[in-house]
Predict the structure of mTERF domain-containing protein 3, mitochondrial.
Amino acid sequence: MLWMLLMRSQACRLCYVRKRLIPKYRPFLACFSTADSQPDKENQRTVETLYKLSVDVRKIRRLKGGVLLEDDTYVEEIVKILRELGADGPVIASILERCPEAIVCSPTAVHTQKELWQSVCKSEGELVKLIGQFPEAFFTVTDQETQKLNVQFFQELGLKNVIISRFLTTAPNIFHNPVETNQRVIKMLQESYRNLGGSEANMKVWLLKLLSQNPFILLNSSASVKETMGFLQELGFTNLDILQLLSKLKGFLFQLGPKSIQNSISFCKNVLKCTDDGLKELVLKCPALLYYPVPVLEERIEGLLKEGISIPQVRDAPMVLELTPQIVEYRMRKLSSLGYSIKDGHLANLSGTKKEFEANFSKIQDKKGRPVFNPVAPLSVDE
């Protein structure tokens, strides 16, 4: 569930530097904002070519009209590259509609990008599928040498190509880090694992799993990681506890600052009415208590109380706080339809993932539908 809250990949960098002066890290799409000062006349050759490709030019004009004003575009060249990869007309039209910036990317740079992505894709068909789903990530053609070095580094680290290709589409920013920066963060994670008592034999598996779950951990600084670990130790968590929290939170633990953690812990301690040791137990059962900010925790506890669930019940099953009030209401209604009252029992059947809840619900339903006697057994009747 925590992964669903996962931060999304941030805006891509510039794929094309316009002739006017643009700050180096200006948001990618801002280059083509219709609010910018632009020439009055569209490039008719570009517009006509896009119409022939069945591209919705009106959509581009409405959302990223600046692209159509560029003097130098490469529509035919980009289309040729996509066709050589096996993309058909509808796929190409969809790509250009959602990422019209592609037509101002240098064909040479796009060829280089294609070769880089092919190095981690099993087939051209898979590559076309990825470009169709994430065209903005593919047509980010800056820092290509840095991207290449990072791909090589991740491969040498032991990450599978399928994971690296997922990173390219969902976490492209990590490939724009200097490779030395990513190497430093990896080294810091390895040292942290050793310092927390992790075994050398399991370190590689642990590290690769952590990265595959949360590649954004590479955007953290070494200082922030050490600060968070030191703060948790001050709160009384042992090295083994912190290692457990780190694994369960999929590395998001390092993205939390001491202030955020302190606020969440103080709130839970007051509302759930528990001691320091009791709170530690709750956090180890439900690490999300550290992750969720106070407003989220407050909303969820209020929702549970509204449904008639007591604070002692929440303390016994803190995992219920991973559910939104809407999910709690829906699940209680389903259980109530079977005559099962959460208010009088444990919250175990309410908690868990959707799959886990449905499995528990089916068991309760089956048990509810069983006959009270065996219908095929002979009846004992007095004559």
Q: What stands out?
A: Residues 1-39, 379-383 have pLDDT under 50 and may be disordered. The radius of gyration is 27 Å.
